Amino acid sequence: MSEHTQEVVSVESLAKTYESDRRTVRALSDVNFGVDDGEFVCIVGPSGCGKTTLFRIIAGLEDATAGAVKLDGKPVSGPGTDRGMVFQEYGLFPWRTVAENVAFGLEEQGVEEPQRSARVDEMLQLVGLDGFADAYPKELSGGMKQRVGIARALAVDPELLLMDEPFGAVDAQTRDMLHGELLDIWSETDKTVLFVTHDVEEAVTLADRVVVMAADPGRVREIVTVDIERPRERTDSEFANYVERIRGLIGE
Ligand code: ADP
Ligand code: MG
């Protein structure tokens, strides 16, 4: 057995350069970190430090210039149902009901009835939307839409839940509620979560470890282990110390 059997995601010497006629952008340079099985890791950093680029390469939506991302030791070479994705823009199908949105990945996988509906019901219950199976996305609030996004991502039981600023478009109060719900879902399902945000407080609220990035070139500045019991309170001095330390690393 290798020493990495516990690691669900390994990012190894990853680099990404965007080149055009006019300019070269080093979006990622020599990025290295791992995410352990069942771990909740946040990636935090200023705008433009390469968070979305990193997310897209791990998701298999974009190729790296150098280095590799491995999932359970196997190099990622494209998208797959082993990674469930949640984006800020929801990405729901407007012509499908809530239940039909959640069923999408299961259809792709060829899961038949009645297993498919049973799984959809289970997911809607998990995110607290069991009464909204027949509603359409336009009838939902931002927070509810994002719960549908989470249910859809988890329906196919992915190895990794990948989220890019998923709560960036909802109001602060809803965001706090979604944080609690996401942590409940995480402990209930034992999922491994990789969560991208520019919000330091959000990262300290959620993460076991925070990968702090810097820009120009996009790189890992430091990896901070957040050793505070959950639920965490923003008003705790310990919490504030972590926020201050990470902000200092970012240069905020
Ligand atoms: P973040 O999500 O942290 O804000 P991004 O990964 O979106 O950062 O972008 C990192 C850098 O790469 C930025 O300088 C951005 O302008 C550049 N970039 C991102 N995508 C492209 C692209 N498709 N073509 C050229 N440059 C890009
Ligand atoms: Mg981004």
TrEMBL record:
<dbReference type="GO" id="GO:0005886">
    <property type="term" value="C:plasma membrane"/>
</dbReference>
<dbReference type="Pfam" id="PF00005">
    <property type="entry name" value="ABC_tran"/>
</dbReference>
<dbReference type="InterPro" id="IPR050166">
    <property type="entry name" value="ABC_transporter_ATP-bind"/>
</dbReference>
<keyword id="KW-0067">ATP-binding</keyword>
<keyword id="KW-0500">Molybdenum</keyword>
<dbReference type="InterPro" id="IPR027417">
    <property type="entry name" value="P-loop_NTPase"/>
</dbReference>
<comment type="similarity">
    <text>Belongs to the ABC transporter superfamily. Sulfate/tungstate importer (TC 3.A.1.6) family.</text>
</comment>
<feature type="domain" description="ABC transporter">
    <location>
        <begin position="9"/>
        <end position="240"/>
    </location>
</feature>
<dbReference type="InterPro" id="IPR003593">
    <property type="entry name" value="AAA+_ATPase"/>
</dbReference>
<keyword id="KW-0547">Nucleotide-binding</keyword>
<dbReference type="GO" id="GO:0005524">
    <property type="term" value="F:ATP binding"/>
</dbReference>
<protein>
    <recommendedName>
        <fullName>Molybdate/tungstate import ATP-binding protein WtpC</fullName>
        <ecNumber>7.3.2.6</ecNumber>
    </recommendedName>
</protein>
<keyword id="KW-0813">Transport</keyword>
<dbReference type="GO" id="GO:1901238">
    <property type="term" value="F:ABC-type tungstate transporter activity"/>
</dbReference>
<dbReference type="InterPro" id="IPR003439">
    <property type="entry name" value="ABC_transporter-like_ATP-bd"/>
</dbReference>
<comment type="function">
    <text>Part of the ABC transporter complex WtpABC involved in molybdate/tungstate import. Responsible for energy coupling to the transport system.</text>
</comment>
<comment type="subunit">
    <text>The complex is composed of two ATP-binding proteins (WtpC), two transmembrane proteins (WtpB) and a solute-binding protein (WtpA).</text>
</comment>
<dbReference type="InterPro" id="IPR017871">
    <property type="entry name" value="ABC_transporter-like_CS"/>
</dbReference>
